[in-house]
Design goal:
By secondary structure, the chain is α+β, with helices and mostly antiparallel strands. It has 2 domains: about 5-215, no CATH class; about 225-265 and about 300-345, 2-Layer Sandwich (Muramoyl-pentapeptide Carboxypeptidase, domain 2). Helix content is about 40%, strand content about 10%. It has a 4-stranded antiparallel sheet, with helices on one face. A 3-stranded antiparallel sheet has the order 5-6-7. A two-stranded antiparallel ribbon has the order 1-2. β6 and β7 form a beta hairpin. It is elongated. The chain starts with a helix and ends with a strand. About 50% of the residues are buried. The model is unreliable at about 1-45 (pLDDT under 50). The protein binds zinc ion (ZN). Zinc ion binds near residues 304, 309 and 344. Zinc ion binds next to β9.
Length: about 350
Protein backbone atom coordinates (compact mmCIF):
# COMPACT_ATOMS: atom_id res chain seq x y z
CA UNK A 1 0.00 0.00 0.00
CA UNK A 2 1.41 3.38 -0.91
CA UNK A 3 1.74 5.14 2.40
CA UNK A 4 3.25 8.38 1.26
CA UNK A 5 1.09 10.52 3.48
CA UNK A 6 1.49 8.76 6.77
CA UNK A 7 5.08 7.86 6.19
CA UNK A 8 5.72 11.39 5.06
CA UNK A 9 4.89 12.72 8.48
CA UNK A 10 7.28 10.55 10.43
CA UNK A 11 9.81 10.60 7.66
CA UNK A 12 9.90 14.35 7.49
CA UNK A 13 10.13 14.66 11.24
CA UNK A 14 13.05 12.31 11.26
CA UNK A 15 14.67 14.08 8.37
CA UNK A 16 14.54 17.42 10.10
CA UNK A 17 16.01 15.93 13.24
CA UNK A 18 18.75 14.26 11.32
CA UNK A 19 19.42 17.27 9.17
CA UNK A 20 20.30 19.26 12.24
CA UNK A 21 22.73 16.56 13.22
CA UNK A 22 24.33 16.09 9.83
CA UNK A 23 24.78 19.60 8.54
CA UNK A 24 28.39 19.93 7.67
CA UNK A 25 28.83 16.38 6.49
CA UNK A 26 31.17 16.65 3.53
CA UNK A 27 29.45 13.87 1.68
CA UNK A 28 26.59 15.36 -0.22
CA UNK A 29 25.67 18.61 -1.81
CA UNK A 30 23.54 19.28 -4.81
CA UNK A 31 26.14 19.45 -7.49
CA UNK A 32 28.41 17.21 -9.46
CA UNK A 33 30.06 14.87 -6.98
CA UNK A 34 28.84 11.80 -8.72
CA UNK A 35 30.19 10.02 -11.73
CA UNK A 36 27.20 8.62 -13.47
CA UNK A 37 26.66 6.30 -16.37
CA UNK A 38 24.48 7.49 -19.21
CA UNK A 39 20.75 6.95 -18.99
CA UNK A 40 19.94 3.48 -20.15
CA UNK A 41 22.72 1.98 -18.07
CA UNK A 42 22.49 -1.61 -17.06
CA UNK A 43 20.02 -4.39 -17.48
CA UNK A 44 16.80 -2.50 -16.86
CA UNK A 45 14.60 -4.04 -14.26
CA UNK A 46 16.82 -6.97 -13.37
CA UNK A 47 15.76 -8.05 -9.92
CA UNK A 48 13.13 -5.37 -9.63
CA UNK A 49 10.24 -7.32 -10.98
CA UNK A 50 6.97 -5.45 -10.57
CA UNK A 51 8.65 -2.04 -10.32
CA UNK A 52 7.62 0.37 -13.10
CA UNK A 53 10.47 0.45 -15.63
CA UNK A 54 11.43 4.09 -15.17
CA UNK A 55 11.54 3.69 -11.39
CA UNK A 56 13.57 0.49 -11.74
CA UNK A 57 16.10 2.25 -13.90
CA UNK A 58 16.21 5.20 -11.52
CA UNK A 59 17.06 2.90 -8.60
CA UNK A 60 19.67 1.02 -10.58
CA UNK A 61 21.27 4.18 -11.85
CA UNK A 62 21.42 5.66 -8.37
CA UNK A 63 22.89 2.44 -6.98
CA UNK A 64 25.45 2.40 -9.78
CA UNK A 65 26.56 5.91 -8.81
CA UNK A 66 27.03 5.09 -5.13
CA UNK A 67 30.53 3.59 -5.43
CA UNK A 68 31.61 7.08 -6.57
CA UNK A 69 30.26 8.75 -3.45
CA UNK A 70 32.75 9.88 -0.86
CA UNK A 71 33.19 7.57 0.98
CA UNK A 72 32.30 4.87 -1.56
CA UNK A 73 28.92 3.30 -0.90
CA UNK A 74 27.35 0.13 -2.24
CA UNK A 75 23.64 0.56 -1.71
CA UNK A 76 21.72 -2.14 -3.59
CA UNK A 77 18.99 -1.14 -6.06
CA UNK A 78 16.64 -3.43 -4.17
CA UNK A 79 16.93 -1.28 -1.05
CA UNK A 80 16.11 1.89 -2.98
CA UNK A 81 13.17 0.00 -4.48
CA UNK A 82 12.05 -0.89 -0.96
CA UNK A 83 12.12 2.77 0.06
CA UNK A 84 10.34 3.83 -3.11
CA UNK A 85 7.66 1.21 -2.64
CA UNK A 86 6.94 2.20 0.94
CA UNK A 87 7.11 5.96 0.36
CA UNK A 88 4.99 6.26 -2.76
CA UNK A 89 4.44 2.96 -4.55
CA UNK A 90 7.37 3.89 -6.83
CA UNK A 91 5.84 7.23 -7.71
CA UNK A 92 2.32 5.96 -8.32
CA UNK A 93 0.66 7.32 -5.17
CA UNK A 94 -2.59 9.08 -5.97
CA UNK A 95 -2.57 7.79 -9.53
CA UNK A 96 0.66 9.52 -10.49
CA UNK A 97 2.76 8.26 -13.39
CA UNK A 98 6.31 8.90 -14.55
CA UNK A 99 7.37 10.06 -17.98
CA UNK A 100 10.48 8.71 -19.67
CA UNK A 101 12.74 11.37 -18.16
CA UNK A 102 11.51 10.43 -14.68
CA UNK A 103 9.15 13.34 -14.00
CA UNK A 104 6.23 12.19 -11.80
CA UNK A 105 2.87 13.79 -12.51
CA UNK A 106 0.71 14.81 -10.86
CA UNK A 107 3.25 15.76 -8.21
CA UNK A 108 3.05 13.64 -5.05
CA UNK A 109 2.64 15.99 -2.11
CA UNK A 110 2.17 14.77 1.45
CA UNK A 111 0.09 16.36 4.17
CA UNK A 112 1.08 19.74 5.65
CA UNK A 113 3.82 19.48 8.27
CA UNK A 114 3.43 22.53 10.51
CA UNK A 115 5.51 20.82 13.19
CA UNK A 116 8.54 21.48 11.00
CA UNK A 117 8.12 25.22 11.48
CA UNK A 118 8.04 27.87 8.81
CA UNK A 119 7.86 27.20 5.11
CA UNK A 120 11.33 26.81 3.59
CA UNK A 121 10.79 26.64 -0.16
CA UNK A 122 8.33 29.43 -0.94
CA UNK A 123 6.06 26.75 -2.37
CA UNK A 124 8.54 25.81 -5.06
CA UNK A 125 8.30 22.07 -4.48
CA UNK A 126 5.21 21.58 -2.33
CA UNK A 127 2.92 24.30 -3.66
CA UNK A 128 2.55 25.96 -0.25
CA UNK A 129 4.31 29.13 0.81
CA UNK A 130 3.08 28.82 4.39
CA UNK A 131 4.05 25.29 5.42
CA UNK A 132 6.26 22.47 4.12
CA UNK A 133 5.07 19.09 2.86
CA UNK A 134 7.07 15.97 2.01
CA UNK A 135 7.26 15.75 -1.76
CA UNK A 136 7.90 13.42 -4.62
CA UNK A 137 8.33 9.68 -5.01
CA UNK A 138 10.88 9.46 -2.17
CA UNK A 139 9.02 11.95 0.05
CA UNK A 140 11.72 14.51 0.72
CA UNK A 141 10.88 17.61 2.68
CA UNK A 142 12.01 20.76 0.90
CA UNK A 143 14.68 21.75 3.42
CA UNK A 144 16.23 18.29 3.24
CA UNK A 145 16.08 18.42 -0.52
CA UNK A 146 18.08 21.63 -0.42
CA UNK A 147 20.89 19.78 1.35
CA UNK A 148 20.69 16.41 -0.37
CA UNK A 149 18.97 16.99 -3.69
CA UNK A 150 20.80 15.62 -6.71
CA UNK A 151 20.56 15.53 -10.48
CA UNK A 152 20.15 11.88 -11.38
CA UNK A 153 19.23 12.23 -15.04
CA UNK A 154 21.83 14.79 -16.07
CA UNK A 155 19.33 17.41 -17.17
CA UNK A 156 20.99 20.09 -15.09
CA UNK A 157 18.21 20.26 -12.50
CA UNK A 158 17.65 18.57 -9.14
CA UNK A 159 13.90 18.02 -8.80
CA UNK A 160 12.38 15.97 -5.95
CA UNK A 161 9.44 15.15 -8.23
CA UNK A 162 11.78 13.40 -10.67
CA UNK A 163 12.41 9.68 -10.05
CA UNK A 164 16.06 9.77 -11.16
CA UNK A 165 16.84 12.80 -9.04
CA UNK A 166 14.91 11.56 -6.02
CA UNK A 167 16.46 8.09 -6.19
CA UNK A 168 19.99 9.51 -6.37
CA UNK A 169 19.28 11.90 -3.51
CA UNK A 170 17.82 9.05 -1.46
CA UNK A 171 20.92 6.95 -2.14
CA UNK A 172 23.06 9.84 -0.97
CA UNK A 173 20.96 10.38 2.10
CA UNK A 174 20.95 6.70 3.08
CA UNK A 175 24.67 6.37 2.40
CA UNK A 176 25.45 9.46 4.50
CA UNK A 177 24.38 7.55 7.59
CA UNK A 178 24.69 3.91 6.53
CA UNK A 179 27.83 3.79 4.38
CA UNK A 180 29.10 1.46 3.06
CA UNK A 181 25.58 -0.05 3.00
CA UNK A 182 27.00 -3.53 2.59
CA UNK A 183 25.34 -5.33 5.47
CA UNK A 184 21.92 -5.39 7.08
CA UNK A 185 23.15 -3.37 10.05
CA UNK A 186 24.38 -0.70 7.61
CA UNK A 187 20.99 -0.69 5.91
CA UNK A 188 19.16 -0.29 9.20
CA UNK A 189 21.47 2.57 10.19
CA UNK A 190 20.72 4.34 6.92
CA UNK A 191 17.00 3.70 7.14
CA UNK A 192 16.91 4.93 10.71
CA UNK A 193 18.21 8.26 9.43
CA UNK A 194 15.56 8.29 6.72
CA UNK A 195 12.81 7.56 9.19
CA UNK A 196 13.20 6.93 12.91
CA UNK A 197 10.99 3.85 12.93
CA UNK A 198 11.93 0.20 13.26
CA UNK A 199 8.60 -0.72 11.64
CA UNK A 200 9.52 1.45 8.67
CA UNK A 201 12.88 -0.30 8.34
CA UNK A 202 11.17 -3.68 8.58
CA UNK A 203 8.76 -2.74 5.80
CA UNK A 204 11.53 -1.47 3.55
CA UNK A 205 13.74 -4.49 4.18
CA UNK A 206 10.86 -6.88 3.56
CA UNK A 207 10.26 -5.24 0.21
CA UNK A 208 13.99 -5.10 -0.59
CA UNK A 209 14.37 -8.82 0.13
CA UNK A 210 11.45 -9.56 -2.14
CA UNK A 211 13.17 -7.71 -4.97
CA UNK A 212 16.54 -9.22 -4.13
CA UNK A 213 15.07 -12.72 -4.23
CA UNK A 214 13.70 -12.04 -7.68
CA UNK A 215 17.22 -11.04 -8.71
CA UNK A 216 18.91 -14.23 -7.69
CA UNK A 217 18.60 -17.56 -9.39
CA UNK A 218 19.63 -19.92 -6.65
CA UNK A 219 21.62 -22.94 -7.57
CA UNK A 220 21.58 -25.44 -4.80
CA UNK A 221 24.74 -26.35 -3.01
CA UNK A 222 25.19 -29.30 -0.76
CA UNK A 223 22.72 -29.53 2.10
CA UNK A 224 21.01 -26.26 2.92
CA UNK A 225 23.54 -23.98 1.27
CA UNK A 226 21.78 -21.49 -1.02
CA UNK A 227 24.16 -20.31 -3.71
CA UNK A 228 24.02 -17.55 -6.25
CA UNK A 229 26.46 -16.82 -9.02
CA UNK A 230 28.55 -13.70 -8.49
CA UNK A 231 30.62 -12.58 -11.44
CA UNK A 232 34.29 -12.94 -10.60
CA UNK A 233 33.98 -15.51 -7.84
CA UNK A 234 31.35 -17.91 -9.16
CA UNK A 235 28.81 -19.59 -6.88
CA UNK A 236 28.74 -18.16 -3.39
CA UNK A 237 26.36 -18.11 -0.44
CA UNK A 238 23.22 -16.09 -1.22
CA UNK A 239 23.26 -14.65 2.29
CA UNK A 240 26.40 -12.60 1.68
CA UNK A 241 26.28 -12.23 -2.10
CA UNK A 242 25.50 -8.54 -1.84
CA UNK A 243 28.50 -7.93 0.39
CA UNK A 244 30.72 -9.75 -2.09
CA UNK A 245 29.33 -7.89 -5.10
CA UNK A 246 29.81 -4.61 -3.24
CA UNK A 247 33.37 -5.43 -2.34
CA UNK A 248 34.27 -6.47 -5.90
CA UNK A 249 32.70 -3.30 -7.31
CA UNK A 250 34.50 -1.07 -4.82
CA UNK A 251 37.85 -2.74 -5.50
CA UNK A 252 37.38 -2.45 -9.25
CA UNK A 253 36.42 1.21 -8.90
CA UNK A 254 39.71 1.79 -7.11
CA UNK A 255 41.74 0.03 -9.78
CA UNK A 256 42.14 -3.34 -8.07
CA UNK A 257 39.94 -5.78 -9.97
CA UNK A 258 39.57 -8.95 -7.92
CA UNK A 259 38.62 -12.48 -8.85
CA UNK A 260 38.63 -15.68 -6.89
CA UNK A 261 36.66 -18.74 -5.96
CA UNK A 262 34.22 -19.24 -3.14
CA UNK A 263 32.00 -22.31 -2.93
CA UNK A 264 33.59 -25.69 -2.83
CA UNK A 265 31.43 -28.75 -2.52
CA UNK A 266 32.40 -31.33 0.08
CA UNK A 267 33.85 -33.70 -2.53
CA UNK A 268 36.21 -30.96 -3.69
CA UNK A 269 37.29 -30.33 -0.12
CA UNK A 270 38.11 -34.02 0.27
CA UNK A 271 40.06 -33.96 -3.00
CA UNK A 272 42.05 -30.97 -1.76
CA UNK A 273 42.82 -32.76 1.50
CA UNK A 274 44.13 -35.72 -0.50
CA UNK A 275 46.35 -33.43 -2.51
CA UNK A 276 47.55 -31.26 0.37
CA UNK A 277 47.50 -33.54 3.40
CA UNK A 278 47.85 -37.14 2.25
CA UNK A 279 45.68 -40.02 1.22
CA UNK A 280 45.12 -41.88 4.49
CA UNK A 281 41.84 -41.59 6.34
CA UNK A 282 43.70 -39.73 9.08
CA UNK A 283 45.26 -37.34 6.57
CA UNK A 284 41.99 -36.58 4.87
CA UNK A 285 39.65 -36.32 7.83
CA UNK A 286 41.61 -35.69 11.02
CA UNK A 287 45.03 -34.19 10.50
CA UNK A 288 45.20 -30.56 11.64
CA UNK A 289 44.91 -28.08 8.81
CA UNK A 290 48.29 -26.59 9.68
CA UNK A 291 50.08 -29.88 8.95
CA UNK A 292 48.88 -29.84 5.33
CA UNK A 293 50.73 -28.00 2.60
CA UNK A 294 49.22 -25.57 2.00
CA UNK A 295 46.99 -25.57 5.09
CA UNK A 296 43.59 -27.02 4.17
CA UNK A 297 40.55 -27.22 6.43
CA UNK A 298 39.18 -30.62 7.42
CA UNK A 299 36.15 -31.74 5.37
CA UNK A 300 33.00 -30.29 6.91
CA UNK A 301 34.82 -27.40 8.59
CA UNK A 302 35.71 -25.14 5.68
CA UNK A 303 33.76 -21.94 5.13
CA UNK A 304 34.23 -22.67 1.42
CA UNK A 305 31.77 -25.53 1.87
CA UNK A 306 29.22 -22.94 3.01
CA UNK A 307 30.14 -20.51 0.22
CA UNK A 308 31.17 -18.06 2.95
CA UNK A 309 34.87 -17.77 2.09
CA UNK A 310 36.73 -16.56 -0.97
CA UNK A 311 40.22 -17.43 -2.13
CA UNK A 312 41.34 -14.42 -4.13
CA UNK A 313 43.45 -15.19 -7.17
CA UNK A 314 46.03 -12.42 -6.92
CA UNK A 315 46.53 -12.47 -3.16
CA UNK A 316 49.24 -15.08 -2.72
CA UNK A 317 51.31 -12.85 -0.43
CA UNK A 318 50.92 -9.73 1.70
CA UNK A 319 52.95 -7.72 -0.78
CA UNK A 320 50.25 -7.90 -3.46
CA UNK A 321 47.94 -5.05 -4.40
CA UNK A 322 45.11 -7.50 -3.86
CA UNK A 323 46.05 -8.10 -0.24
CA UNK A 324 46.76 -4.43 0.47
CA UNK A 325 43.36 -3.41 -0.80
CA UNK A 326 41.57 -6.13 1.12
CA UNK A 327 43.53 -5.37 4.26
CA UNK A 328 42.41 -1.75 4.09
CA UNK A 329 38.83 -2.29 2.95
CA UNK A 330 37.43 -5.80 3.32
CA UNK A 331 36.20 -5.23 6.85
CA UNK A 332 33.79 -2.58 5.58
CA UNK A 333 32.09 -5.33 3.60
CA UNK A 334 32.12 -7.85 6.41
CA UNK A 335 35.01 -9.99 5.09
CA UNK A 336 37.70 -11.06 7.53
CA UNK A 337 41.24 -12.38 6.95
CA UNK A 338 42.70 -15.73 7.87
CA UNK A 339 46.17 -14.95 9.15
CA UNK A 340 47.79 -18.10 7.79
CA UNK A 341 46.46 -17.63 4.23
CA UNK A 342 46.71 -14.14 2.70
CA UNK A 343 44.38 -15.19 -0.14
CA UNK A 344 41.57 -16.51 2.06
CA UNK A 345 38.91 -14.07 3.31
CA UNK A 346 35.68 -15.17 4.92
CA UNK A 347 32.62 -14.17 6.85
CA UNK A 348 34.32 -14.83 10.19
CA UNK A 349 38.04 -15.17 9.54
CA UNK A 350 37.89 -18.98 9.45
ZN1 LIG B 1 40.25 -20.52 1.25
Amino acid sequence: MPTGKTIGVTSATALIALLAATIGLPVLTVSGLFDRPELGFGPAGAGLEGVPPVAAEAYQRAAAAAPSFSPPCSIPPSLLAGVGEVESGHGTHGGATASGNGDVRPPIIGIPLPQLGDDTDGGRWDGSSTVDHAVGPMQFIPSTWRAYGADGNDDGAADPHNLYDAALAAAGYLCASGSPMATESDWRRGLWAYNHSEAYADDVLEAARRYEAADTSPTSGSGDVQLVDVEGVGPTNAAWAHQVRSLLAAAAAEGVPLTGSSYRDPAEQIALRRAHCGTSHYAIYEMPSSQCSPPTARPGTSQHEQGLAIDFDACSTRSTACWSWLNANAIRFGLHPLSSEPWHWSIDGN
